[in-house]
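Re: the 161-residue chain
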Amino acid sequence: MMSPEVAAAYIAVSIDVMYEMIHTGKISFVPKGSAVCVFNESHVRSSIIVGIRASGAFYYRCLHNGCVGNDWEKFRARVEFDSGKKMKFGVPDNRVHSWIQSDEKALAAWNAQGDLEAGFGYLHGFMRDRRVDIDQWLRLYEASPLKLALDVQIPEYIRNS
């Protein structure tokens, strides 16, 4: 299943996905049809790859020598310029949860194990490093065991005011 952020990028440049490749935690999307590179129209679909690394970082790659240095940031800027609008790229909630599950410290913090304030700080940095939008992070945090544990420490008269 294509992630929303990559789908948005493809839609913005009218590219349909031919297939996904999953390799060593990385997901790559190869376009189909008459798709061309956003930097050089002579570069066709078989040379273009957009995806998400295991770390959660996005990437863009055109395999032609003339596109060396055209990375995700340049791709996104070009897509936004061509479409005339800024796009919001996010990470699906289930991917964020899988990242938390795969990191021992993040999972312990999420489950309110250990020092709660240190756990919150670790999770905040963890989410920021993976470019999770603050609104999404706060929404996910609302349902976490960590929030429940921290809320209990707030005096009742403050919680109810």
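The mean pLDDT is 75.
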